[in-house]
Amino acid sequence: MMLKLLHYFPFIGLVVAENGLQAWLRYAPLPQGHNARLPSSIIALNSSTNSPVNTAGQELQKGIQGIFGNRLSISSIGKAPSSAVIGTVAQFQEAFGSSPVHNQLEEDGFWLSVNGSTVQILGQNERGALYGAFEYLSMLAQGNFSNVEYATNPAAPVRWINSWDNMDGSITRGFGGNSIFFADGHVVSNLTRAAEYARLLSSIRVNAVVVNDVNANFTTINPENIQGVGRIADVFRPYGVQLGLSLDFASPMELGNLSTYDPLDPGVIAFWGDITQQIYARIPDFAGYLVKADSEGTPGPLVYNRTLADGANLFANVIKPFGGIVMYRAFVYNQLPDEGDWKADRANAAVDFFHPLDGQFDDNVIIQIKYGPIDFQVREPASPLFANLLETNTAIELQVAQEYLGQQCHLVYLPPLWRTILDFDLRVQNQSSFVRDVITGERFKRPLGGSAAVVNVGLNDTWLGSHLAMSNLYAYGRLAWDWTSDSEMILQDWTRLTFGLDKTVIDTITQMSMASWPAYENYSGNLGEQTLNDILYTHFGPNPQTLDNTVWGQWTRADHASIGMDRTVSNGTGFSGQYPPEVAEMFEDIETTPDNLLLWFHHVNYTQMLKSGKTVIQHFYDAHYEGAETANNFVAMWQSLKGKIDDERFEDVLFRQVFQAGHAIVWRDSILNFYHNISGIPDGAGRVGHHPFRIEAESMELSGYQRYVVSPFEAASNAIAIVTLTNSTTGTATTVLNFTSGVYDLAVNYFDLYGGNSSYQVLLNQKMIGQWVGNIVDIGKLGHTPSIYLDGHSATRITFPQVPIKKGDTLKIVGQANGVEPAPLDYVVLLPAGVID
Ligand SMILES: *[C@@H]1O[C@H](CO)[C@@H](O)[C@H](O)[C@H]1NC(C)=O
Ligand SMILES: *[C@@H]1O[C@H](CO)[C@@H](O)[C@H](O)[C@H]1NC(C)=O
Ligand SMILES: *[C@@H]1O[C@H](CO)[C@@H](O)[C@H](O)[C@H]1NC(C)=O
Ligand SMILES: *[C@@H]1O[C@H](CO)[C@@H](O)[C@H](O)[C@H]1NC(C)=O
Ligand SMILES: *[C@@H]1O[C@H](CO)[C@@H](O)[C@H](O)[C@H]1NC(C)=O
Ligand SMILES: *[C@@H]1O[C@H](CO)[C@@H](O)[C@H](O)[C@H]1NC(C)=O
Ligand SMILES: *[C@@H]1O[C@H](CO)[C@@H](O)[C@H](O)[C@H]1NC(C)=O
Ligand SMILES: *[C@@H]1O[C@H](CO)[C@@H](O)[C@H](O)[C@H]1NC(C)=O
Ligand SMILES: *[C@@H]1O[C@H](CO)[C@@H](O)[C@H](O)[C@H]1NC(C)=O
Ligand SMILES: *[C@@H]1O[C@H](CO)[C@@H](O)[C@H](O)[C@H]1NC(C)=O
Ligand SMILES: *[C@@H]1O[C@H](CO)[C@@H](O)[C@H](O)[C@H]1NC(C)=O
Ligand SMILES: *[C@@H]1O[C@H](CO)[C@@H](O)[C@H](O)[C@H]1NC(C)=O
């Protein structure tokens, strides 16, 4: 073992634990046989501690030492041959009299020249120089020793992250531990992780982080906390990352003791002017404000009958003298719609509110628009608001946080989803109008624009709770720089940097990741009917019933015969008419609406024929089976990497893939049980409701266990589970196996509730073949929002592979309740090789 380690890691003293903390900046030694011509020293043209150029010099030193074992000296002057020189164009000119770069660079851009051991990295500003240093290091870490010479510039000036961190240290939709910024109402004293985060972000060219939740707490801007966030800005600064803050619109009342927060009130204006001054006094490079107002019950200008533009411009005015900007969210929908009204539609809200205000927002306001008209669903059409603001700056809001997409417990590589939006051509004024060109400002010649991604990094060593989920964060930065970058190539760069250069590792992770979003869409909600998560509770597991009969407007309008939202102009909500004519026409007509958005735009019978030649309902059946199968195949794919990556990360990912495989079956069955039940239409392939390898727990001989009717019914196989008689006792469920003798994978579906850690044993002819504790949600091993009920979030599977079974064997499961968890069991399944059920 030691020998093998030495072979792979020749500089053993530098090897850090592979716990994920270094993410894609590991600077791991290259395998033998990679020999680069390296610079012999580093010249960083600014040696001030807070200067990103100084940071770049140190990062180069650290990286080259990690990858090659050479420790280069750093100086701030001189002209050594075969050195790596880093600085701004201006600094280079100052030091050497002339510069090789002329007018090729825009703000934050850089120029990189590698000619053997002579390297020049010149930024338009210091931040750009640091980006260039990370680019060079990324090449070296991937064993790319090409000579290159090029300039590169960002697609847009705003490449931000929104953290939904709360002052008490929790994170809204946080699945990777508590906040690295806040605890107990204050900024934490140890900001090491915040600095490490800024380092990761600067390597992907993210230039600002809004550190607190959009549902902002006014205490964030009290005098003490302004000092506190000032300390965060201090640790961000050497990495060229700026700090921004979300605001609570009602702060003038809550913090300032005013009787109003009317945006036109002079006292209110003075209050915000004063706050802004205090912030800039502490943080001179403060990036700007993020405002969620009049949204889901938050206060805003509409309370005073002012317009949203009045609200946005209030902040724009006070921050303008300092050079700051205002990101104003378009996620406004306070009037809760009535499902009884066929024409009501929450999807219409953004355009209804904002289109009439086009041209009224100040130049330093950016309207931040979620990618789709509802809320980060597995598939949505591009928000039509991108086509309705021609005289307003816009940015797209994405989610690296997998709120509705498996909460980092399911592998879902998101760039292919994002690209469906950014590459969508809105045909404004019948001209090419890709969303990516709208948000960068290019299409409508706007001075500002870009993107913000909601990111839920936490204190967990893995940042996001999941090693593989980090590809989404990495890719966000890469795409925000260049929206035309290829999703798969970005993924491969990330994989090499994160897991090394082994081709099998790269190919396998590529294959899994690229298949992951289509698989998730297949086993959750497809044909554009939204993700079908439980939208009233955890946003994690399946619960299609929660979408209808609510005021949240995420309806599917599913009944016994038909399903889908009629968003046509001719007979429905009129949403399709919010797009420019060419696109509106396409979505208006069932014939020209793509299958994958059919139920978004049209209300149809389950027997409606798709372009694929299948009916809607048969598509559901087939897609869910396909998706669950793909997710199950990820397990063997990942297992094939054993020994090719370190055990710590291998085991961690394996645990999650096994969970996903089981939960994908929960998803598949829940959704299909539901639509099978409501439509009464059988599965043409005979799978739905027919599980020959399962033994329902309720059909076993029970002692100390009783039947329990699960709600929603579709979350349990056959709608029924078993629970112990009390929540402190033991139960047994026994059955005689009537299966052909052979070797089977024995899986048990149970429910892992928050608030208890039941223990279980599986016995075959009184001999124990396996045991487990239902504790994965209580010890936070997965990190998703837990459930205290037997439902689609708590439904979990454990598998004991390769169990030899004889016909007539007695199988017994013993469950010991714990806490509020009555050792709940759904079914046992004995899977012959190759069967997934
Ligand atoms: C060097 O960095 C410091 C700190 O960021 C900055 O104040 C100074 O202007 C920089 N010097 C030059 C010559 O750019
Ligand atoms: C690269 O460096 C060599 C000398 O080491 C020089 O002859 C050559 O012109 C350089 N190439 C470029 C493109 O600058
Ligand atoms: C090496 O890096 C350069 C610059 O990023 C890139 O253009 C080139 O394609 C890379 N070469 C390989 C083999 O990946
Ligand atoms: C705002 O933060 C304070 C201090 O942490 C806390 O007491 C209060 O409950 C928070 N308010 C809301 C609405 O979260
Ligand atoms: C600060 O946090 C870092 C990273 O979590 C840790 O390594 C370090 O020991 C902490 N420092 C102090 C003084 O607690
Ligand atoms: C608001 O009132 C509270 C309590 O009455 C007081 O402590 C605080 O200083 C006041 N704040 C301002 C800005 O006047
Ligand atoms: C806003 O307008 C409505 C309807 O015109 C009115 O009832 C309400 O009192 C107004 N609110 C304010 C704060 O002026
Ligand atoms: C038109 O809308 C009505 C509800 O107003 C609905 O019942 C009907 O199915 C729709 N017709 C078509 C063809 O979609
Ligand atoms: C849809 O189903 C309903 C109820 O079964 C039926 O009356 C209607 O004719 C069907 N419509 C189409 C277009 O097939
Ligand atoms: C056992 O399985 C066989 C064939 O699948 C079936 O005919 C028989 O009725 C089953 N016996 C019991 C006791 O369920
Ligand atoms: C990180 O999260 C994983 C699972 O989400 C958990 O098992 C582990 O204990 C956490 N580690 C830390 C250091 O928080
Ligand atoms: C048993 O469950 C009940 C509620 O279901 C709960 O109040 C009680 O505390 C639980 N008992 C234990 C030991 O946790």
UniProtKB/TrEMBL annotation:
Signal peptide range: 1-17
E.C. numbers: 3.2.1.139
CC terms in the record's Gene Ontology section: extracellular region
Gene Ontology BP annotations: xylan catabolic process
Active site as annotated: 296, 375, 403
Keywords, alphabetical: Carbohydrate metabolism, Glycosidase, Hydrolase, Polysaccharide degradation, Secreted, Signal, Xylan degradation
Domain Alpha glucuronidase N-terminal: 23-136
Residue intervals of the Glycosyl hydrolase family 67 catalytic domain: 143-463
Keyword check for Ligase: no
A Pfam entry, by short name: Glyco_hydro_67N
Location of this chain's protein in the cell: Secreted
Annotated ranges, domain Glycosyl hydrolase family 67 C-terminal: 465-687
Domain of life, per lineage: Eukaryota
Family label: Belongs to the glycosyl hydrolase 67 family.
Protein name as catalogued: Alpha-glucuronidase
Organism: Mycena metata
Gene behind the chain: aguA
